[in-house]
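Async update (no meeting this week)

Hi team, since we skipped the sync, here's where things stand on the single-chain job. The sequence we agreed to prioritize is pasted below, unchanged from the tracker. I ran it this morning and attached the output directly underneath so nobody has to dig for it. Comments welcome in thread, and please keep replies under the output.
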Amino acid sequence: MMIQSLTEANSHEQNGAVGVDAGIPRVSWGWALVVVAAVVYGSLIPFDVTPSIFGSSVISSIEGLRFAVAPLSDRLLNIAIFVPIGFLFVLCRRSLGSSTRGAMAAVGVGLAISVAVEATQTHLLSRVASWYDVILNVTGLAIGAWVAIVVRLCGVQLSTWMGERLRTRLFSTMSAVMAVGLLMYGLFPFDFVTSTDAMFAGFRSARWDVLSVRYASLGEPPFQAIVTQLASAGWFALLGYISAFGNREVGRRPGVAFGLAVKHGVVLACLIEGMQLFTNSHVFDLASVVLRSLGVVFGAWAAVFVVDELSQGRWRKRPSFASPGLLLGFALVFQLSLLAFESIGHGAWSLTNIRVGDVSWIPFRSLWEQTTLTAIASGLAVVLWYGSMSLGLALLLGGASTRRSWSLAMACVLCVAIAIEVIKAGSFGRTPDTTDVALAIGASIVTWRVWQSLIVLRLSPSHATQV
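Output:
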């Protein structure tokens, strides 16, 4: 399943991946068009158009632009949203020699898109159109194009190194990526304290009672705390499982592999919770450290003293013997339970509470109404949540090497996302929104394409992937 999909040689053909230009990565133009459409769409939300747009010309709209300085967060956002356009325009070129032309085309097309968007924003009530935004957008285009040129220049070396790592140290690489992902997810949005008073407040709000998971906070449904903690422990159990195999594949003895996997997992759990003492949006909880540590111990024990022993080391030649289906299922069940608990909110669910008129039908409008940092945090959390769910489901539904498994996984994720919004619609204090549904679909597609890229890198390290 999870590992089997990286070893099946025919998956290269099944997924339609094609190597190009001796290690220089290239993507299809469809991705660039999707990103451009997403940027334009997001730049015009919430579509509160004034009637003046129908009687104005393009020139008069451009003349309506002014030099208005936005807050720092908005300026950084204007740079960031155009970076993918410059990046993809360069990677869409067929050869390295055309990268410069791709960068010039990206800046030119991006400049036209930026001016058109800003001119349209002069007729939106909630937007402030500015030439400064155009300058920032072009800066983002240039940055993205420069990064893509560097990636293409280093494409052979990067793909060769990644392919070698995936072939010789598959489990070690996967455990390292997962550890970094858990660390980043646990600390996002990285709002570290900047004053002594805030630091003391973080220490005062810390939960030092190991049994604190028995009690629900004000407004939380019963058992939500324990479900949250167990879901987190499930992912740490998966980390300990993969890490233990990573130590075994480099020749360490079973006891040493078990001890190192436990040590690294416990250190990571302590590091995440310890650093949360110095953040504004997170609360230190000793129960999290204990449950995550127990999860790591269970996962490492299952890998070394159960799977490794039963398979008699055959997972080295056929990694599918090490597929952690039980742990994935455990984590997915608690993911679904946590989503359901959070969707119910303060009151019980009732069919009579559902009102279609309360649904926010415009995707991403709710993100626009939040602050930049909050919107990024909430959007990224949904993407990571549904992305990991789609990967886990694909692995459990027969392996992630076939389109059928991914199609079933994406269909399941879509149904889950819609069901969660239906639960919100019938719950007190919750507002159903199509934003999470759209993010779930996007997360599933991106996860699928990234997984394809890893397969091709492992099979053909001297070639990059056309995605």
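Quick observations from my side:
Residues 1-23, 461-467 have pLDDT under 50 and may be disordered.
Residues 1-15+345-462 form one domain.
Reply here if anything looks off.
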